[in-house]
Amino acid sequence: MKPLLDVLVILDALEKEGSFAAASAKLFKTPSALSYTIHRLESDLNIQLLDRSGHRARFTPSGQMLLEKGREVLHIARELEIRAVKLQQGWENSLRLAVDSTFPVALLSPPIAAFYQQQPLTRLHFTLNPSLLDWRPLTDGQADLLLGALGEPPPLSGYDYLPLGELELLLVVAPQYPLARHRAPLSWRTLRRYRAVATGEGGALTQRSGDPDGV
Distance between CA 112 and CA 108 in Å, rounded? Predict the structure, then answer.
């Protein structure tokens, strides 16, 4: 496989630079070394990659196909090298992010774009969760990060967290619901006595708090 990768690199440089002399200068090798590497692969596979009958070598159909498909292989090989280096430096191949359904998803676009500018090879996988009140996606191993979790992490969990800001929720109460009899502003102690349902951008409904006996 190594000689094939070497030939792919040579063919790519030869097509871009236009001659063995220019390709050899780019690859810091002698023209004879490049020619020998190609000839050895031609002999091993019993194919002809270059037509050397004219003043300048030209790609045969087999050589042109190997050049085009080989560039895809070279791209993958270089990406693998970068991934290996990034992993050694502590970057992850992918990150799973659980997002609370009430979190404003539009706010994610700028940080996602900034992240991919710095680390384009790490894939971000998002899941929209009805409730992150109990941090369950993280504790169950279903996510690596939570966005929009309410409250602090479970005791003794060792999880760290940073505040993202404040989210204003509009409280809507039906006239016949017992909570409607209380005068505004409503205290948190009063609200905790009643069951609350939250809906976010995704339309998911989630029980947030409240004593079941208070309904």
Answer: 6
Q: Which tens digits make up the pLDDT trace of 94-146?
A: 889 988 877 777 888 888 899 888 888 788 999 887 766 668 888 888 888 88
Q: With contact defined as beta carbons under 8 Å apart, do 122 and 94 qualify?
A: yes
66 burial level (CB within 10 Å; 0-12, 13-18, 19+): buried
Q: Where exactly are the structural domains of the chain? A: 1-86, 92-147, 169-214
Q: What is the DSSP letter of 213?
A: G
Chain centre to alpha carbon of residue 45? 39
Single out the residue of 180, 210, 177, 179 nearest to residue 195, CA to CA. 210
- The reply to whether the predicted model has a pTM over 0.85 is no
If you count DSSP H runs as helices and E runs as strands, how many of each does the chain have, helices first? 7, 7
- Residues in the chain predicted with pLDDT less than 70, given as ranges, are 1-2, 90, 131-134, 156, 167, 198-215
Looking at the domain that runs over 1-86, which CATH code has it been given?
A: 1.10.10.10
- Local structure of residue 122 (DSSP, 8 states): S
H or E segment at 48? none
| Homologous superfamily assigned to 92-147 | Periplasmic binding protein-like II (3.40.190.10)
- Cα 161 to Cα 107, 142, 157: the distances in Å are 18, 17, 11
